[in-house]
Amino acid sequence: MELTWLLLLFSSFFFSITTAQDDEVCSRPELGESIKLEGLQRYFSFGAVVVLACKPGYTPVQGPRTIVCKDTGTWTDTKLKCIPVQCSYPDPPHNGQLHYENTQYNSTVNYTCDEGYFLTGASSAVCLVDGTWSAPEPQCKPISCGPAPIPQFGMIIYDKIIKVNNINYGTSGTYKCHPPFALFGKERAECTATGQWTETPQCKEVSCPPPENIENGFMSISQKRDFAYTETIKYGCNDDYVLDGPHIVCEKNGEWSQKPSCKAPCSIGIKRGRILYKGRKLWIEDLKPNQVLHGETVSVYCMGGDSNCGYEVLTQCLDGNLQIPECFDEPSAAQYSLDSGSLPSEIQQC
């Protein structure tokens, strides 16, 4: 009796399952990652209609948006597509950069700043389901260094007018020392991207020993003392000597700059002939005294070969030495006295 009752109970349970599977012929449809189906139902009956929707962050296109369970246990086709929501194209921050691959839902944009600037705000943002970004555009603000350090006995001259509390990256200036101190180190200073100024120079006191005189010349001072950095001394030359070079300056190494020299005048080494000096034609005996100063030029006259004409040849006095051109042919005493009109300086010029 008990065995018969168990067999009847098992047969009823098996019939119930078979009937349920016959009524629910379609299993839960497999949809794309962007399409959603409400509820947790696993099996659907023949003729059941299911409404499809897009997941948050996606927008539906085409259709229809329903599918039907067929008696074959399959679902009708759908052309529903869900495309990602698009966020607006972000703008790069001023003095910064923007990095991203696309602007659709769930994509990320990253912000960076140029050298010398730091980021204030979120460094990245994500495109949300409503087509907005998760964070507003950040700002790139300049790195500040504060006032430049000033060396003792020195100062800095900024390249532009600045505010004491707003000395930012890229600001630059020039260091100077108060006399008689000399600058040792880099003269130029700049606020760097690290928020620090470049190396600060030093101002050190510098002096030079009493200078020496120059040959055939004299100095503008007579006292024997040490001279401070940048002090200058002028020289002059005796008689007809010419000063060649500027005054001397006490330099930062404690030595004087190169001294000038006095250059000697030149005598014109011809006895007979005519010259061109300072725009005037002179017979050599009329040049008194017979000398020209260092650096001055003189022209002598040479014969133009077969053309029977004369031409000027320039020569210059260089520290007591004046070279007579090789083409110059000094006339004899007789020709010079009796036939001076035939000299190259007097005949037709080439």
TrEMBL record:
Q: Which residues form the signal peptide?
A: 1-20
Where does the record place a coiled coil?
Answer: none
Task: Keywords in alphabetical order, please.
Answer: Disulfide bond, Glycoprotein, Heparin-binding, Repeat, Secreted, Signal, Sushi
Any idea where the Sushi domain is? 24-84, 85-142, 143-205, 206-264
Question: Per its UniProt entry, which superkingdom is the organism in?
Answer: Eukaryota
Instruction: Classify the main location.
Output: secreted
Q: What is this protein called?
A: Beta-2-glycoprotein 1
Mind telling me which Pfam families this protein's record contains?
Sushi, Sushi_2
Q: Is Flavoprotein included in the keywords of this UniProt record? A: no
Which purpose does this protein serve, as stated in its record?
A: Binds to various kinds of negatively charged substances such as heparin, phospholipids, and dextran sulfate. May prevent activation of the intrinsic blood coagulation cascade by binding to phospholipids on the surface of damaged cells.
All disulfide bonds of the chain are C26-C69, C113-C140
Q: Does the keyword ATP-binding apply?
A: no
Any one annotated GO CC term: extracellular region
Xref: InterPro entries: Compl-Cell_Adhes-Reg, Sushi/SCR/CCP_sf, Sushi_2, Sushi_SCR_CCP_dom
Which cell locations does it reside in? Secreted
Cite the CDD domains for this sequence: CCP
Annotated GO MF terms: heparin binding
